[in-house]
Amino acid sequence: MGTRDMPLPRQFEFLLGKDRDQWPLEARFIEAAHDGDVRTIKKIAKELDVHGHGIPVTVANTTYMGINALHAAGGRGRLPLYQYLVEELKMDVNKPDTSQDHSPAEHAVAYGNLPTVAYLLDHGADLHQKRQGNVTLLHSAAIRGHSEIVEFLLSRGADVNALSVTGTPLSVASFKGHASTVKILLQHNADPNKGNRLFVALDMALRKSFVSCVKLLIQGGAKVSCASPGDNPLVKAAEKGLTEAIKCLLEAGANANVLDMYGRLPIELAAEYGTREDVEILFPFTSPISTVANWSVDGIISHVKMEIKQLEDGNFVKTRMSELKGQGDEAFKKQDYLKASVFYTQALKMDNFDAKLLSNRSLCFLRMGDGKRAYEDATECAEIRPKWAKAHYRLGAAFMCMKDYNSAYQSLSRALELNPESEEVEKLFWEAMELRS
Fold first, then answer.
1. How many folded domains does the chain comprise?
2. What is the pTM of this model?
Protein backbone atom coordinates (compact mmCIF):
# COMPACT_ATOMS: atom_id res chain seq x y z
CA MET A 1 0.00 0.00 0.00
CA GLY A 2 1.43 3.40 -1.00
CA THR A 3 1.22 6.34 1.37
CA ARG A 4 -1.46 8.00 -0.76
CA ASP A 5 -3.74 4.97 -0.28
CA MET A 6 -3.49 5.20 3.54
CA PRO A 7 -5.92 7.12 5.75
CA LEU A 8 -4.48 10.51 6.67
CA PRO A 9 -3.48 9.63 10.26
CA ARG A 10 -1.47 6.65 8.99
CA GLN A 11 0.15 8.82 6.32
CA PHE A 12 1.20 11.26 9.02
CA GLU A 13 2.47 8.44 11.24
CA PHE A 14 4.48 7.13 8.31
CA LEU A 15 6.00 10.56 7.63
CA LEU A 16 6.18 12.10 11.12
CA GLY A 17 6.33 9.16 13.53
CA LYS A 18 3.75 7.92 16.04
CA ASP A 19 4.43 10.52 18.71
CA ARG A 20 1.71 13.05 17.96
CA ASP A 21 3.16 15.55 20.43
CA GLN A 22 6.06 15.92 17.99
CA TRP A 23 3.81 16.61 15.03
CA PRO A 24 3.36 20.17 13.71
CA LEU A 25 0.17 21.79 14.99
CA GLU A 26 -1.16 21.84 11.41
CA ALA A 27 -0.82 18.05 11.14
CA ARG A 28 -2.73 17.55 14.38
CA PHE A 29 -5.35 20.00 13.15
CA ILE A 30 -5.86 17.98 9.93
CA GLU A 31 -6.03 14.72 11.92
CA ALA A 32 -8.76 16.24 14.10
CA ALA A 33 -10.66 17.18 10.94
CA HIS A 34 -10.23 13.62 9.66
CA ASP A 35 -11.74 12.36 12.93
CA GLY A 36 -14.61 14.86 12.75
CA ASP A 37 -13.63 16.44 16.07
CA VAL A 38 -14.94 20.02 15.92
CA ARG A 39 -13.91 20.81 19.49
CA THR A 40 -10.27 19.85 18.93
CA ILE A 41 -10.20 21.68 15.59
CA LYS A 42 -11.23 24.90 17.29
CA LYS A 43 -8.77 24.35 20.14
CA ILE A 44 -5.81 23.86 17.79
CA ALA A 45 -6.98 26.74 15.57
CA LYS A 46 -6.81 29.00 18.63
CA GLU A 47 -3.16 27.99 19.13
CA LEU A 48 -2.42 28.56 15.45
CA ASP A 49 -4.06 32.00 15.40
CA VAL A 50 -0.92 33.97 16.26
CA HIS A 51 -2.00 37.00 14.21
CA GLY A 52 -5.44 37.36 15.75
CA HIS A 53 -7.50 36.60 12.65
CA GLY A 54 -10.00 34.64 14.71
CA ILE A 55 -10.81 30.94 14.96
CA PRO A 56 -13.20 30.75 11.95
CA VAL A 57 -10.66 32.32 9.58
CA THR A 58 -7.86 30.13 10.93
CA VAL A 59 -9.94 26.94 10.57
CA ALA A 60 -10.87 27.84 7.00
CA ASN A 61 -7.30 28.63 5.95
CA THR A 62 -5.14 26.10 7.77
CA THR A 63 -3.59 23.43 5.57
CA TYR A 64 -1.00 20.72 5.89
CA MET A 65 0.61 19.01 2.90
CA GLY A 66 -1.88 20.84 0.69
CA ILE A 67 -4.95 19.50 2.52
CA ASN A 68 -7.48 21.63 4.41
CA ALA A 69 -10.08 20.64 6.99
CA LEU A 70 -12.81 20.07 4.43
CA HIS A 71 -10.63 17.66 2.43
CA ALA A 72 -9.75 15.74 5.59
CA ALA A 73 -13.34 15.63 6.84
CA GLY A 74 -14.14 12.73 4.51
CA GLY A 75 -12.26 10.38 6.85
CA ARG A 76 -15.14 9.97 9.28
CA GLY A 77 -17.71 11.99 7.36
CA ARG A 78 -19.38 13.36 10.46
CA LEU A 79 -22.26 15.71 9.70
CA PRO A 80 -21.66 18.29 12.50
CA LEU A 81 -18.18 18.98 11.12
CA TYR A 82 -19.52 19.47 7.60
CA GLN A 83 -22.24 21.76 8.88
CA TYR A 84 -19.61 23.84 10.66
CA LEU A 85 -17.17 23.98 7.74
CA VAL A 86 -19.64 24.37 4.88
CA GLU A 87 -22.71 26.08 6.34
CA GLU A 88 -21.07 28.25 9.00
CA LEU A 89 -17.58 28.94 7.60
CA LYS A 90 -18.64 28.80 3.91
CA MET A 91 -15.59 26.81 2.84
CA ASP A 92 -15.37 26.08 -0.89
CA VAL A 93 -16.78 22.58 -1.54
CA ASN A 94 -15.10 22.42 -4.96
CA LYS A 95 -11.59 23.57 -4.06
CA PRO A 96 -9.07 20.77 -4.77
CA ASP A 97 -6.14 20.03 -2.52
CA THR A 98 -2.71 20.87 -3.88
CA SER A 99 -1.16 17.44 -3.28
CA GLN A 100 -3.41 15.17 -5.38
CA ASP A 101 -5.87 17.57 -7.07
CA HIS A 102 -8.70 15.96 -5.08
CA SER A 103 -11.79 17.97 -4.17
CA PRO A 104 -13.63 17.40 -0.86
CA ALA A 105 -16.12 15.17 -2.71
CA GLU A 106 -13.25 13.20 -4.24
CA HIS A 107 -11.85 12.58 -0.76
CA ALA A 108 -15.27 11.47 0.47
CA VAL A 109 -15.58 9.06 -2.46
CA ALA A 110 -12.13 7.66 -1.75
CA TYR A 111 -13.16 6.91 1.82
CA GLY A 112 -16.42 5.33 0.63
CA ASN A 113 -18.65 7.71 2.62
CA LEU A 114 -21.95 7.85 0.74
CA PRO A 115 -23.75 10.21 3.20
CA THR A 116 -20.83 12.63 2.93
CA VAL A 117 -20.85 12.51 -0.86
CA ALA A 118 -24.61 13.20 -0.82
CA TYR A 119 -24.19 16.09 1.61
CA LEU A 120 -21.48 17.74 -0.47
CA LEU A 121 -23.48 17.43 -3.69
CA ASP A 122 -26.51 18.89 -1.92
CA HIS A 123 -24.36 21.84 -0.85
CA GLY A 124 -22.83 22.82 -4.16
CA ALA A 125 -20.23 20.21 -5.03
CA ASP A 126 -20.00 19.76 -8.79
CA LEU A 127 -21.23 16.30 -9.83
CA HIS A 128 -19.34 16.60 -13.14
CA GLN A 129 -16.03 17.85 -11.70
CA LYS A 130 -12.91 16.48 -13.34
CA ARG A 131 -9.43 16.31 -11.94
CA GLN A 132 -6.22 15.83 -13.87
CA GLY A 133 -6.64 13.30 -16.68
CA ASN A 134 -10.41 14.00 -16.89
CA VAL A 135 -11.06 11.68 -13.95
CA THR A 136 -14.61 12.13 -12.58
CA LEU A 137 -16.18 11.23 -9.25
CA LEU A 138 -17.73 8.22 -10.96
CA HIS A 139 -14.31 7.01 -12.10
CA SER A 140 -13.03 7.31 -8.53
CA ALA A 141 -15.96 5.38 -7.10
CA ALA A 142 -15.79 2.70 -9.82
CA ILE A 143 -12.08 2.01 -9.49
CA ARG A 144 -12.52 1.44 -5.75
CA GLY A 145 -15.60 -0.75 -6.16
CA HIS A 146 -17.83 1.56 -4.10
CA SER A 147 -21.00 0.25 -5.72
CA GLU A 148 -23.46 2.22 -3.58
CA ILE A 149 -21.71 5.48 -4.41
CA VAL A 150 -21.58 4.50 -8.09
CA GLU A 151 -25.34 3.90 -8.08
CA PHE A 152 -25.97 7.16 -6.22
CA LEU A 153 -23.84 9.24 -8.60
CA LEU A 154 -25.62 7.69 -11.58
CA SER A 155 -29.00 8.48 -10.03
CA ARG A 156 -27.88 12.11 -9.80
CA GLY A 157 -26.96 12.20 -13.50
CA ALA A 158 -23.27 11.35 -13.62
CA ASP A 159 -22.02 10.53 -17.13
CA VAL A 160 -21.75 6.74 -17.19
CA ASN A 161 -19.49 6.87 -20.26
CA ALA A 162 -17.20 9.73 -19.21
CA LEU A 163 -13.80 9.23 -20.80
CA SER A 164 -10.57 9.77 -18.88
CA VAL A 165 -6.94 8.92 -19.59
CA THR A 166 -7.66 5.45 -18.16
CA GLY A 167 -10.89 4.91 -20.08
CA THR A 168 -14.47 4.94 -18.81
CA PRO A 169 -15.75 4.11 -15.31
CA LEU A 170 -16.57 0.66 -16.72
CA SER A 171 -12.97 0.26 -17.90
CA VAL A 172 -11.49 1.02 -14.49
CA ALA A 173 -14.00 -1.15 -12.63
CA SER A 174 -13.16 -4.02 -15.00
CA PHE A 175 -9.44 -3.47 -14.51
CA LYS A 176 -9.89 -3.85 -10.75
CA GLY A 177 -12.26 -6.81 -11.03
CA HIS A 178 -15.20 -5.14 -9.26
CA ALA A 179 -17.91 -7.35 -10.78
CA SER A 180 -20.79 -5.83 -8.77
CA THR A 181 -19.78 -2.34 -9.92
CA VAL A 182 -19.44 -3.54 -13.53
CA LYS A 183 -22.96 -4.97 -13.31
CA ILE A 184 -24.41 -1.69 -12.00
CA LEU A 185 -22.67 0.37 -14.70
CA LEU A 186 -23.96 -1.94 -17.44
CA GLN A 187 -27.48 -1.74 -15.98
CA HIS A 188 -27.19 2.03 -16.40
CA ASN A 189 -26.31 1.67 -20.08
CA ALA A 190 -22.54 1.90 -19.86
CA ASP A 191 -21.03 1.30 -23.29
CA PRO A 192 -18.64 -1.67 -22.96
CA ASN A 193 -16.97 -0.75 -26.23
CA LYS A 194 -16.10 2.83 -25.41
CA GLY A 195 -12.56 3.68 -24.37
CA ASN A 196 -9.32 5.12 -25.59
CA ARG A 197 -6.61 3.17 -27.42
CA LEU A 198 -5.37 1.23 -24.43
CA PHE A 199 -8.22 1.06 -21.96
CA VAL A 200 -11.37 -0.73 -23.14
CA ALA A 201 -13.33 -2.68 -20.53
CA LEU A 202 -13.08 -6.20 -21.98
CA ASP A 203 -9.36 -5.83 -22.60
CA MET A 204 -8.89 -4.61 -19.02
CA ALA A 205 -10.77 -7.56 -17.54
CA LEU A 206 -8.84 -10.05 -19.67
CA ARG A 207 -5.52 -8.39 -18.92
CA LYS A 208 -6.09 -8.96 -15.21
CA SER A 209 -7.82 -12.37 -15.64
CA PHE A 210 -11.14 -11.28 -14.10
CA VAL A 211 -13.39 -13.84 -15.79
CA SER A 212 -16.57 -12.80 -13.91
CA CYS A 213 -16.18 -9.30 -15.37
CA VAL A 214 -15.47 -10.78 -18.83
CA LYS A 215 -18.77 -12.66 -18.75
CA LEU A 216 -20.73 -9.59 -17.63
CA LEU A 217 -19.16 -7.43 -20.33
CA ILE A 218 -19.91 -9.94 -23.09
CA GLN A 219 -23.50 -10.22 -21.86
CA GLY A 220 -23.59 -6.42 -21.92
CA GLY A 221 -22.62 -6.26 -25.58
CA ALA A 222 -18.83 -6.04 -25.59
CA LYS A 223 -17.40 -6.70 -29.03
CA VAL A 224 -15.60 -10.03 -29.20
CA SER A 225 -14.35 -9.49 -32.74
CA CYS A 226 -11.31 -7.30 -33.34
CA ALA A 227 -10.25 -4.58 -35.72
CA SER A 228 -6.60 -5.59 -35.52
CA PRO A 229 -4.48 -8.42 -34.06
CA GLY A 230 -3.59 -6.46 -30.96
CA ASP A 231 -7.29 -6.16 -30.05
CA ASN A 232 -8.20 -9.86 -30.24
CA PRO A 233 -9.78 -10.83 -26.89
CA LEU A 234 -9.61 -14.54 -27.74
CA VAL A 235 -5.82 -14.27 -28.08
CA LYS A 236 -5.58 -12.72 -24.61
CA ALA A 237 -7.82 -15.39 -23.06
CA ALA A 238 -5.86 -18.22 -24.70
CA GLU A 239 -2.51 -16.72 -23.73
CA LYS A 240 -3.62 -16.57 -20.09
CA GLY A 241 -5.26 -20.01 -20.06
CA LEU A 242 -8.68 -18.56 -19.14
CA THR A 243 -10.80 -21.58 -20.06
CA GLU A 244 -14.19 -20.15 -19.08
CA ALA A 245 -13.44 -16.89 -20.85
CA ILE A 246 -12.48 -18.79 -24.02
CA LYS A 247 -15.83 -20.63 -23.93
CA CYS A 248 -17.75 -17.41 -23.36
CA LEU A 249 -15.95 -15.59 -26.19
CA LEU A 250 -16.52 -18.43 -28.67
CA GLU A 251 -20.22 -18.64 -27.76
CA ALA A 252 -20.45 -14.90 -28.47
CA GLY A 253 -18.93 -15.36 -31.92
CA ALA A 254 -15.23 -14.61 -31.43
CA ASN A 255 -13.09 -15.54 -34.43
CA ALA A 256 -10.56 -18.25 -33.56
CA ASN A 257 -8.66 -17.70 -36.82
CA VAL A 258 -7.28 -14.21 -36.18
CA LEU A 259 -3.53 -14.09 -35.62
CA ASP A 260 -1.97 -12.09 -32.82
CA MET A 261 0.57 -9.40 -33.71
CA TYR A 262 3.32 -12.02 -33.74
CA GLY A 263 1.55 -14.38 -36.12
CA ARG A 264 0.18 -16.87 -33.60
CA LEU A 265 -3.35 -18.29 -33.50
CA PRO A 266 -5.29 -18.57 -30.24
CA ILE A 267 -5.04 -22.37 -30.42
CA GLU A 268 -1.23 -22.17 -30.64
CA LEU A 269 -1.15 -19.91 -27.60
CA ALA A 270 -3.46 -22.29 -25.76
CA ALA A 271 -1.09 -25.15 -26.55
CA GLU A 272 1.82 -23.17 -25.15
CA TYR A 273 0.30 -21.34 -22.19
CA GLY A 274 -3.03 -23.00 -21.43
CA THR A 275 -4.27 -26.55 -21.00
CA ARG A 276 -5.21 -29.42 -23.28
CA GLU A 277 -8.85 -28.55 -22.56
CA ASP A 278 -8.30 -25.08 -24.03
CA VAL A 279 -6.88 -26.61 -27.22
CA GLU A 280 -9.84 -29.02 -27.43
CA ILE A 281 -12.31 -26.14 -27.04
CA LEU A 282 -10.65 -24.07 -29.78
CA PHE A 283 -10.03 -26.95 -32.21
CA PRO A 284 -13.53 -27.11 -33.85
CA PHE A 285 -13.41 -23.34 -34.44
CA THR A 286 -9.92 -23.22 -35.94
CA SER A 287 -9.09 -23.68 -39.62
CA PRO A 288 -6.19 -26.10 -40.33
CA ILE A 289 -2.71 -24.60 -40.17
CA SER A 290 -0.68 -25.49 -43.27
CA THR A 291 2.50 -26.10 -41.28
CA VAL A 292 0.84 -28.61 -38.94
CA ALA A 293 1.11 -32.02 -40.65
CA ASN A 294 -1.16 -33.86 -38.19
CA TRP A 295 -4.26 -31.71 -37.86
CA SER A 296 -5.53 -32.91 -34.50
CA VAL A 297 -5.37 -31.76 -30.88
CA ASP A 298 -2.30 -33.93 -30.30
CA GLY A 299 -0.79 -32.75 -33.58
CA ILE A 300 -1.15 -29.08 -32.64
CA ILE A 301 0.35 -29.61 -29.20
CA SER A 302 3.28 -31.51 -30.72
CA HIS A 303 3.76 -28.82 -33.37
CA VAL A 304 3.90 -26.04 -30.76
CA LYS A 305 6.30 -28.00 -28.57
CA MET A 306 8.56 -28.54 -31.59
CA GLU A 307 8.50 -24.81 -32.37
CA ILE A 308 9.44 -24.01 -28.78
CA LYS A 309 12.31 -26.47 -29.00
CA GLN A 310 13.51 -24.88 -32.25
CA LEU A 311 13.42 -21.45 -30.64
CA GLU A 312 15.80 -22.72 -27.98
CA ASP A 313 18.35 -23.34 -30.75
CA GLY A 314 20.11 -20.00 -31.17
CA ASN A 315 21.69 -20.85 -34.52
CA PHE A 316 18.37 -21.97 -36.01
CA VAL A 317 16.63 -18.81 -34.85
CA LYS A 318 19.38 -16.52 -36.14
CA THR A 319 19.45 -18.16 -39.58
CA ARG A 320 15.67 -18.34 -39.97
CA MET A 321 15.14 -14.75 -38.82
CA SER A 322 17.77 -13.52 -41.26
CA GLU A 323 16.01 -15.35 -44.09
CA LEU A 324 12.57 -13.98 -43.19
CA LYS A 325 13.84 -10.44 -42.71
CA GLY A 326 15.59 -10.59 -46.09
CA GLN A 327 12.39 -11.80 -47.76
CA GLY A 328 10.46 -9.01 -46.04
CA ASP A 329 12.95 -6.37 -47.14
CA GLU A 330 12.80 -7.65 -50.72
CA ALA A 331 9.00 -7.52 -50.76
CA PHE A 332 9.09 -4.00 -49.29
CA LYS A 333 11.41 -2.81 -52.11
CA LYS A 334 8.84 -4.12 -54.57
CA GLN A 335 6.18 -2.13 -52.68
CA ASP A 336 4.37 -5.34 -51.77
CA TYR A 337 3.74 -4.13 -48.23
CA LEU A 338 1.24 -6.82 -47.34
CA LYS A 339 3.67 -9.60 -48.26
CA ALA A 340 6.50 -7.80 -46.47
CA SER A 341 4.38 -7.52 -43.31
CA VAL A 342 3.70 -11.28 -43.43
CA PHE A 343 7.43 -12.07 -43.55
CA TYR A 344 8.14 -9.65 -40.70
CA THR A 345 5.30 -11.23 -38.72
CA GLN A 346 6.79 -14.69 -39.21
CA ALA A 347 10.15 -13.39 -38.02
CA LEU A 348 8.55 -11.75 -34.99
CA LYS A 349 7.00 -15.08 -34.11
CA MET A 350 10.56 -16.23 -33.42
CA ASP A 351 11.61 -13.11 -31.54
CA ASN A 352 8.84 -10.71 -30.57
CA PHE A 353 11.31 -8.32 -28.89
CA ASP A 354 13.10 -7.33 -32.10
CA ALA A 355 12.54 -3.58 -32.30
CA LYS A 356 13.81 -3.29 -35.89
CA LEU A 357 11.28 -5.86 -37.11
CA LEU A 358 8.49 -4.03 -35.30
CA SER A 359 9.65 -0.76 -36.84
CA ASN A 360 9.72 -2.32 -40.32
CA ARG A 361 6.26 -3.81 -39.95
CA SER A 362 4.92 -0.55 -38.56
CA LEU A 363 6.13 1.17 -41.73
CA CYS A 364 4.40 -1.51 -43.85
CA PHE A 365 1.11 -0.83 -42.08
CA LEU A 366 1.60 2.92 -42.57
CA ARG A 367 2.12 2.43 -46.31
CA MET A 368 -1.11 0.39 -46.35
CA GLY A 369 -2.94 3.18 -44.50
CA ASP A 370 -3.53 1.13 -41.33
CA GLY A 371 -2.66 3.66 -38.66
CA LYS A 372 -3.94 1.62 -35.72
CA ARG A 373 -1.77 -1.41 -36.44
CA ALA A 374 1.17 0.86 -37.20
CA TYR A 375 0.59 2.49 -33.81
CA GLU A 376 0.55 -0.89 -32.02
CA ASP A 377 3.90 -1.93 -33.51
CA ALA A 378 5.46 1.48 -32.93
CA THR A 379 4.29 1.46 -29.30
CA GLU A 380 5.89 -1.95 -28.74
CA CYS A 381 9.03 -0.74 -30.48
CA ALA A 382 9.27 2.38 -28.28
CA GLU A 383 8.77 0.30 -25.14
CA ILE A 384 11.60 -2.04 -26.13
CA ARG A 385 13.95 0.77 -27.22
CA PRO A 386 12.76 3.98 -25.52
CA LYS A 387 15.85 5.96 -26.58
CA TRP A 388 15.68 5.01 -30.27
CA ALA A 389 14.58 8.01 -32.30
CA LYS A 390 13.12 5.90 -35.10
CA ALA A 391 10.70 4.20 -32.68
CA HIS A 392 9.23 7.57 -31.69
CA TYR A 393 9.27 8.70 -35.32
CA ARG A 394 7.22 5.64 -36.29
CA LEU A 395 4.84 6.36 -33.42
CA GLY A 396 4.47 9.96 -34.53
CA ALA A 397 3.78 8.86 -38.11
CA ALA A 398 1.13 6.43 -36.87
CA PHE A 399 -0.57 9.22 -34.90
CA MET A 400 -0.48 11.40 -38.03
CA CYS A 401 -2.17 8.61 -39.98
CA MET A 402 -4.90 8.47 -37.31
CA LYS A 403 -5.17 12.29 -37.36
CA ASP A 404 -4.19 12.54 -33.68
CA TYR A 405 -1.94 15.53 -34.26
CA ASN A 406 -1.36 16.44 -30.60
CA SER A 407 -0.01 12.98 -29.83
CA ALA A 408 1.97 13.02 -33.08
CA TYR A 409 3.58 16.31 -32.04
CA GLN A 410 4.62 14.85 -28.67
CA SER A 411 6.11 11.68 -30.20
CA LEU A 412 7.92 13.58 -32.91
CA SER A 413 9.25 16.05 -30.34
CA ARG A 414 10.82 13.11 -28.55
CA ALA A 415 12.20 11.71 -31.81
CA LEU A 416 13.73 15.09 -32.69
CA GLU A 417 15.19 15.39 -29.22
CA LEU A 418 16.89 11.99 -29.68
CA ASN A 419 18.02 12.69 -33.25
CA PRO A 420 18.09 16.45 -33.94
CA GLU A 421 19.95 15.91 -37.25
CA SER A 422 17.14 13.94 -38.93
CA GLU A 423 15.51 15.92 -41.73
CA GLU A 424 12.61 13.45 -42.14
CA VAL A 425 11.76 13.69 -38.45
CA GLU A 426 11.99 17.49 -38.52
CA LYS A 427 9.75 17.71 -41.58
CA LEU A 428 7.01 15.58 -40.02
CA PHE A 429 7.41 17.42 -36.70
CA TRP A 430 6.64 20.80 -38.30
CA GLU A 431 3.70 19.28 -40.17
CA ALA A 432 2.27 17.94 -36.91
CA MET A 433 2.80 21.26 -35.16
CA GLU A 434 0.85 23.10 -37.85
CA LEU A 435 -2.05 20.63 -37.73
CA ARG A 436 -2.43 20.17 -33.97
CA SER A 437 -5.26 21.97 -32.25
1. 2
2. 0.78
